[in-house]
Amino acid sequence: MNVQDILFFTYLTGYNIKEIFQANQSASAEIALEIYLRNKHNAGLIITDSQLTSIRKVSTERYEEMRFQGIDFIVYGSGNYPAALKAISSSPPILYKKGTLKKGPNVAIVGTRDASAYAAETVRKIVQIFSDYHYGLVSGLAYGIDKLVHEYSLNAGAYTLAVLPNALDHVYPKEHFHLANEIIQSGGCLISEIPFGINLGKKGFVQRNRLQSGLSSIVVPLEMGVNSGTMHTVQFAIQQKKTLLVIRPGKLKRDLAQYQGIGYLINNAYEKLHIIEDAFTKKDFADFVKNGQPVVMYNAEVTDELELHNKKKEVLSEFCNTIKAKVEYLWDEIHNVNAPGLNDTIKVDVPFFDDKMEEMKMKFQQVIFNFIFQFPILNRKELEKIVKRDLKKLNAAILKLKKKNPQDAQADI
Prior knowledge:
Blueprint: H1 3-13, H2 17-24, H3 29-42, H4 49-68, E1 72-75, H5 83-86, E2 94-99, E3 106-110, H6 119-132, E4 136-139, H7 145-156, E5 160-163, H8 177-185, E6 189-192, H9 202-214, E7 218-221, H10 230-239, E8 243-248, H11 260-266, E9 273-277, H12 282-291, H13 305-338, H14 350-374, H15 380-402, H16 406-412
Parallel strand pairs: 3-4, 3-7, 4-5, 5-6, 7-8, 8-9
Antiparallel strand pairs: 1-2, 2-6
Helix pairs in contact: 1-2, 1-4, 2-3, 6-7, 9-10, 13-14, 13-15, 14-15, 15-16
């Protein structure tokens, strides 16, 4: 299919990558649409001719609008599509870009929006070092670390690439329009997987992170919390088997909130983790950047396919048991607070419940991260589905508790 056909299926599916690639495997766009409509009909969803006409009109208008705005289209499978992105899970069917997308080694430098007072000097030094080794500097054009990465890249005359979580018809945050223009004018690039008119909301930020790591051979998280958005980039880097570079925080930094995530990485095992001390120099990077070999090695690789399958089943079972235990613990706390006796009037303490649920969700994310760290082949979405399933059971039990059926509620957990 051509660009316009893929765009039509993008708007038709609401940017469902799996369905777009399934359509692209058909002999023609017409056959792909026929199969898609039949599948939806079988699933109980009827798409009318008027709806299809409207979607086709929107698709054509957006295509022309993007052309007018100078957006370039890079279709999956074409010669200029980045080879590194073909290897990741859920490769974008089309990349939308402004500026120059260069081939060559890239390093993604990412971190918190709430950067510490130490961040600027660290970013300046590390950008200069990677620039000297002719690496492109990848980040996300956000506040904090991202902004520093792009600014110091421009100051160093280095190539910099900004991966946006939204379509290229706007910049987020809007205060960075000037920086975005400078990146393009310097020979850099803005890139997105999202066409005009589609807004993925918070999901767009998470999906963007897989592209930052996917485009890079090295990922450098500089400052982040344990449950921060940057940790998504780290998780994608692990799944994509990228090299992670972290700088061990010195005495003045180690207790700051911005370095809790870095400390967490250092204290957990990952076979491609490379640790550099806080007072680093260019010499510390020499062998690492040239050879890409991590200093700290963990975990022998599982190469046999059957062994890999069995190991994954074993780890998933352990994950399910861990989540189940945490849900049961949360239930016990809620039940003890809210159900003092079967004959008493039961009133669920909503603030207590909400606080506990938020606390548990953070713990679940930490458990997910731990398991991915230990076994990178695990799929984060698969683990989140397990968590969602068990939380659904807990909510059903809470509902029965509200209806004064504590014994029935216990059976749901």
